[in-house]
Amino acid sequence: MQNTQSKNLRFITELALFIALFVVLSFWSIRLWGEGGSISFQMVPTMIMAYRYGYKGGLTVGILFGLIKLILGAYILTPFQAFLDYPLTFGLVGFTAVTVPMVKKAFGNKEID
């Protein structure tokens, strides 16, 4: 059994690794349409953290991703739009933790970690 301090250290370490992975993945996307629109894999780290740590991990990583994306280069028209497009949107991806019980049920309640 891990103590609280080592669990916190593990969470912070994974948080840092997934944020670094997000930054790397944010540079690549598959352009599909000429007018805009693309597929990017930058949301995958958020979903993995949400699966592993629930809402705490998903929302933390999502909001931090949004803030980093805002810092690294954002198209901002108004402060309200900046909040909606970056921290809020990426944070809401953290709610994929809602699907964890369904995924575990689909895999027969096996330990997937």
UniProtKB/TrEMBL annotation:
<feature type="transmembrane region" description="Helical">
    <location>
        <begin position="15"/>
        <end position="34"/>
    </location>
</feature>
<protein>
    <submittedName>
        <fullName>Energy-coupled thiamine transporter ThiT</fullName>
    </submittedName>
</protein>
<keyword id="KW-1133">Transmembrane helix</keyword>
<dbReference type="Pfam" id="PF09515">
    <property type="entry name" value="Thia_YuaJ"/>
</dbReference>
<feature type="transmembrane region" description="Helical">
    <location>
        <begin position="83"/>
        <end position="103"/>
    </location>
</feature>
<feature type="transmembrane region" description="Helical">
    <location>
        <begin position="55"/>
        <end position="77"/>
    </location>
</feature>
<keyword id="KW-0472">Membrane</keyword>
<keyword id="KW-0812">Transmembrane</keyword>
<dbReference type="InterPro" id="IPR012651">
    <property type="entry name" value="Thia_Transptr_ThiT"/>
</dbReference>
